Amino acid sequence: MRHTLTQNCHIDRMQARLEKIAARFSLLKAVLPLTRAAALRDTFAGVMLASMDIPQVLGYARIAGMPAVTGLYTVFLPLVAFAFFGASRHLVVAADSATATIFASTLSTMAPTASAEYVALAGMVALLTALLLLIARVFKLGFLADFLSRTVLVGFLAGVGVQVGVAMLGDMLGITTTSSRTTEQAAQIVAHLAHVNVPTFAISFSVVAAILLAKRFAPRLPVPLLAVVGGIAASDVYHFAAHGIATLGPVAGGLPPLRFPAVSWRQMLDLLPVAASCFVMIVAQSAAAGRVFAQRYHEDVDLNADILGLAAANTAAAFTGAFVVNGSPTQTAMADRAGSRSQLAQVAFAAVVVVVLLFFSQFLQYLPHCVLAGIVFTIAVGLINVQSLRDIRRESPGEFTLAVVTAVAVVVLGVEHGILIAVALSLLRHVRHSYRPHTMLLAPGPDGRWQPVPSRPGTQTAPGLIVYRFGADLFYANDHFFVEEVREIIDQAPSKVRWFVVDASAITDLDYSAARSLTDLFDSLAQQNVEVIFGRVNRYLRADMDRHGITEIVKPSCIFSTLHEALAAVGVAGDARAQGVM
């Protein structure tokens, strides 16, 4: 008994020392602290995750145009690297369909898929992506993830789902396609439907049906793994290859060799835009997944540390013959369902992969392409979030249009252009809202009480008074809108305007261009004997007004921190308070 207590105390001291060293070098944030019970739980969860995820990463390698074994490479050292350098306890960093599709669409035009040159190009994409992630970490650019809105991300993933699904139909039907473009692939499949390989289609249909039914009625059952094992066994026993059913063929075993992805300088420059697209998707998806599960378990989010972990993971992928890895929302959700609560589960997953690479990789040669295609097809279907699209359409038809446009762009123009369009649409939507913000006026209602209404010419708060609210910061793109609307409201007022009160509660910033426009406007209003008064001016706006000379034009006595004080200056504060508008 005494020996056991002594041993436990020794283990606790060793763990405390390890935690101290890890904290000093900002390592293992996603693993420590860890109790023995939690370690057992996470180890078991990692084994469960491996049973569900190994078939998927094999499928992702198929999407990427890489040798099947490289899918296993993505869940070996990259997982371990993120566990050491990342901060999220839940994020699963591995191969992902979105990033695989991004680089495959370009690399397939530069080298034959699965060739040595293609593998080197994919490794360089991973290395360049890691470099961009490292730059983002150094300059703390984690906020860039916020510029890809959830709306266009839903549309982007839906487009990727359609693209991947169409790409897999050829293998599922036993039809060879020669194009990398989705529209042309679909046309070739339709043109050759008469040449469908019936046994191949039957196997694919069975795999897809089994996975979708299990997802509905038995979500914890590892049907993809069962499909892979069953497909390998049946292929070996019944000699599928001799009956026209394509199989993977010989698969390299053993641990991945460490090597630098050697490409030419020109090829590296050509790959930089591809790496940039992968970078945007990685930051956006990883941030979204990391935040969701951190909030679920009331944990802090350190996106910049996660970016460092992602950079380390992609560096490991580049030097082990793998391809770009990403923080996958779907695989993170799978890990959570398996019981994972720290990155120790992912380390256990990597250990299972080592066993597969050392002792079972030779059996992968019998795996039919149609089985993998069926698994990937179900992944593609899962990327099309119909419920989210319905919710967006119901709540915001304009944003639904953006999501659809993004999805169509991915399918028609390709993933690389689709991600750029997604970012552009996200930014344009934000700029559009700031460019044409909501504006309001206080106006008498049916009962005579003041109430906020959308601003329109011919409306007045009270005889001689207009109270106007502008719903965004004032900058070079919307200052003309402010000026034109104010002039129109004053010119078309029912009676002569003596006081124009600006409710500035939504204005926190004023740039040089807007300040010049306001100067001209207020000079013009002064000539019309209209006194401009500002209410609800915060300290940031007041500093800008002082710096740009607006305070001198309006006069300090006409700038107030509350709307009550502003209305008191024109003698109507009591009426406004009585009407409940302040």
Task: Describe the protein.
The protein folds into 3 domains: 1-30; 31-429, no CATH class; 437-578, 2-Layer Sandwich (Transcription Regulator spoIIAA). It has a 5-stranded mixed sheet with strand order 4-3-5-6-7. Strands 1-2 form a two-stranded antiparallel ribbon. The protein has 24 helices and 7 strands. It has 582 residues and is mostly helical. The N and C termini lie far apart (73 Å). It has helices spanning 2-24, 36-64, 68-73, 77-85, 97-107, 116-138, 150-173, 182-191, 198-217, 223-238, 265-296, 303-319, 329-338, 344-359, 369-383, 386-395, 397-413, 415-435, 479-491, 512-527, 539-547, 550-554, 563-568, 573-578; strands at 93-94, 326-327, 439-444, 450-454, 465-470, 499-503, 531-535. 63% of the residues lie in helices and 5% in strands.
List keywords for this structure.
mainly alpha, Transcription Regulator spoIIAA, 24 helices, elongated, 5-stranded mixed sheet, 3 domains, 582 residues, two-stranded antiparallel ribbon
SSE blueprint:
Elements (H helix, E strand, L loop, with lengths): L1 H23 L11 H29 L3 H6 L3 H9 L7 E2 L2 H11 L8 H23 L11 H24 L8 H10 L6 H20 L5 H16 L26 H32 L6 H17 L6 E2 L1 H10 L5 H16 L9 H15 L2 H10 L1 H17 L1 H21 L3 E6 L5 E5 L10 E6 L8 H13 L7 E5 L8 H16 L3 E5 L3 H9 L2 H5 L8 H6 L4 H6 L4
Widest sheet: strand order? 4-3-5-6-7
Task: Kindly report how far apart the N and C termini lie.
Answer: 73 Å
Reported for the largest beta sheet, the result is: 5 strands, mixed
Total DSSP E strands: 7
Overall number of structural domains:
3
Figure out the total of helices: 24
Low-confidence stretches: 21-25
| Overall outline | elongated
Average residue pLDDT: 84
Helix content: 55-70%
Structural class: mainly alpha
- In percent, how much strand structure appears in the residues? 5-15%
Radius of gyration: 30 Å
